[in-house]
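Example record used in the benchmark description.
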Amino acid sequence: MAVAVSNIDSAIIKYENFINNVLKESLRLHDQYLQKVNEEISELVQEKHTLKVITDEKLHPNGFKTKVDIGCNFFMEAFVPDTSKLLMHIGLKHYMEFTVSEANTYIDARIKVYEAKAEEIKKKIYTTKAHIKLMLFGVQQLLNAKNEGVC
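Model output (structure tokens):
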């Protein structure tokens, strides 16, 4: 009987180590990645709002004035008379000229991609949480079996 109890104890320790070291770490990493993706989505939504404000001809019929950081917190005033076309950073230090509608389409497409990534990560998080619950249920079953065998 002592051999069976020690086998159950070692199995419980292995399961608890797996839960704490593997599953919870995986859950933490997925959560961090989800936070980064959500930050990217919020930045894109903010970018879309900024684009709408800058290109609104009702607010700026003759263009708009702005300050541009030219480096080391030195600013320069700029006047933009025409906002029908703009340069957007598309990644890897590359910029592309877009019309306003193309820029909106581009931002919407990027938002959809990041939302799909977020959904994929959420599914992984749900799966990992389910694995943790299942493993905890198994540990509880082993504890119950151990207690029934001892009594």
